[in-house]
Amino acid sequence: MNRKKKVKETLLKKHKKMNSKIHRSNKPRYISKAERAKMEAEAAAENQQLPEETATEEQSENSAESDE
Predict the structure, then answer these.
(1) Is the pLDDT higher at 42 or at 48?
(2) Could you tell me the pTM of the whole model?
(3) How many Å apart are CA 61 and CA 42, to the nearest integer?
(4) How far is CA 17 from CA 10, 27, 29, 30, in A?
(5) DSSP letters along 1-68, please?
(6) Distance (Å, rounded) from C-alpha 64 to C-alpha 55?
(7) Which ranges are annotated Acidic residues under compositional bias (predicted)?
(8) How far apart are CA 28 and CA 48, in angstroms?
């Protein structure tokens, strides 16, 4: 009885490991509160830089048009 139980347990463990490799979780990776705040700050900094860049491009385009 003991030997059968041991064999059954080892086979069951092996089966569970194979199933766990097949069925990975689709849950997204956890992002800590500090990391989220850092990402938001970076996004805000990018958003501030983009309008400045577009404003300087528009000014250069306007000055080029007025020169013509």
Answers:
(1) 42
(2) 0.39
(3) 29
(4) 11, 19, 21, 24
(5) -HHHHHHHHHHHHHHHHHHHHHS---PPPP--HHHHHHHHHHHHHHHHHHHHHHHHHHHHHHHHHHH-
(6) 14
(7) 54-68
(8) 29
